[in-house]
DNA sequence: TATTGTTATACTCTATAACTATA
DNA sequence: TATAGTTATAGAGTATAACAATA
């Protein structure tokens, strides 16, 4: 691997850990784990079925069942019947869940926006474009 | 928050999740959780004391005690006495731990290098520089 | 007194395998 | 048969609070 790769890869790994920390710090004051915040934020674009949601979040369906159970007990999400398939359900946000998801999203979004405030437009564009390549968009 | 922020923040969050998935996929075949792989890779620059290590990894010392216990049982890390302080210990990699840490590091590093292979030099530099600003280097 | 690391406890996240109900 | 989701189980990560030994 070339030296330029080492540098870029190192940067990306550093960035991942930094963003993970930010995510955790943003979720905690809201009484959410990072993964719960993630689920709630995904559902802002929802509702989704369990299988679909498990693919989006890269976790097993059974793991998701546990998460949804806990969030449903707190009345942040709801299992809605799927009119087209009696086996399936749609996971949606309750009013309280929507509010909390908005807060979580706003909080970490603002934190990242602060950290990137100093970046010039050209660098922003380069980063956005690079991410597009990396995530295969 | 301005539209340019929304775009950049969205990209960064996407990137974080993508890198997390890569990290998990790289660790798993080696019999390591992502966090275990992280700890082992940090120790490549080690050894470190528990308090120092907990700060590096942004977890509580007691959480780290659990992790080190498990990895020590598998003989991947060792608790070495600190000659200067009888309360403290230094966590270091065993020979097997070093080998595994190298493998983990190489695996995800190669995966990321593949994904970024198409990026031109100017974009690489922009990303590295942007990350420097974000993580406060 | 302050710090280092551990223990005890409780909860969350996670996967695998087996299961029920429906398609 | 195949798919949607759940249950049972076990292991791993996490934090809080209280603790022992040493500084």
From TrEMBL, chains A, B:
Pfam families: MarR (PF01047)
Keyword annotations of the record: DNA-binding, Transcription, Transcription regulation
Domain of life: Bacteria
SMART domains the UniProt entry points to: HTH_MARR
InterPro entries recorded: HTH_MarR-typ, MarR/SlyA-like, Tscrpt_reg_MarR-type_CS, WH-like_DNA-bd_sf, WH_DNA-bd_sf
This protein's record includes keyword Disulfide bond: no
HTH marR-type domain location: 5-136
Protein name, entry field: MarR family transcriptional regulator
Origin species: Kribbella lupini
Taxonomy of the source species: Bacteria, Bacillati, Actinomycetota, Actinomycetes, Propionibacteriales
